[in-house]
Amino acid sequence: MMFLRKTAAPAQLTSQQAERIRRIRRSGAYILLAIATVVFLLPFLWMVTTSLKSDEANLAFPPQWLPDSFHWENYERGWFGSLPFNTFLLNTVLITALSMLGNLVSCVLPAYAFARMRARAAGLMFAALLATMMIPREITLVPKFILFSKLGWVDTYLPLVVPEFFGVALYIFLLRQFFTTIPQELIDAARIDGASELRILWRIMLPLSKPAIAAICLFSFVGNWNQYLESVIYIRTTEKFTLPLGLAMFTDQYATQYNQMMAVALVSMLPIVILFFVAQKTFIRGVTLTGIAGR
């Protein structure tokens, strides 16, 4: 027993030392977040500074981050130049609004059915729905173009709007996940009172699902506002162009006028930025709950 020695117990950190360690970790996290923020903001800052440069400064080498003088006329020259960007804006708003309406109408009903209605092979049908999310969108471009060309829909907005009324697997999945978080007792009470399934959906599920609906609307808005690939396939007439097509046409005609191009691009992205900041809290809550909920 004499040769046995008690090992010294590890020293416990004092409250001040623990608080100091927490502050160091928090400071390190803030520094990393600040660095990441600067990295992600660099392209946006380059767009802003480029939109305010003169025509000569755009071609300067090495490139200049800050312009010698601010040329605000680039926004007027770019937007009200030879291309009708006001018409492009109205076309984009029309397509985006109809597509958002189609997404909501076509995705709410199946999401409610998968979440609250029992049917044979419901799990298999839901798995098949999720499997469609793995199909690349580019694979369906050729058969869809053949179909729409035979229907005579080329050079119209129908190929961009009509498919949105047949559901989007991702949106159905997100809404279904949120619907499962709503207490079943509310639905059972409504059924006992004689409410139909559509009335339950309209009066109970939708008012309680505002965060998820806001997330779906924002996803749909951004996706359709920035839609380029299918727009360039189906739309042929210049007067029917959307903002992404107008920007592409702008660069083709004025390849060296990067200041005007950046000015128009900034104006085009303003609605997305404004919508995100207005619905930021609701959007984040909807994405969070649809990601962690469900069974």
UniProtKB/TrEMBL annotation:
**Membrane is among the record's keywords:** yes
Q: Which PROSITE patterns does the entry mention?
A: ABC_TM1
Give the bilayer topology: Multi-pass membrane protein
| Occurrences of domain ABC transmembrane type-1 (ranges) | 89-279
Report the superkingdom from the record: Bacteria
Q: Where in the cell is it found?
A: Cell membrane
Q: Which UniProt keywords apply?
A: Cell membrane, Membrane, Sugar transport, Transmembrane, Transmembrane helix, Transport
Q: Which Pfam families does the entry link to?
A: BPD_transp_1
Which parts pass through the membrane?
A: 29-48, 88-114, 121-137, 157-179, 200-222, 258-279
Main localization of the protein?
membrane
Q: Which family does it belong to?
A: Belongs to the binding-protein-dependent transport system permease family.
Its recorded name reads Multiple sugar transport system permease protein
Species name: Nonomuraea africana
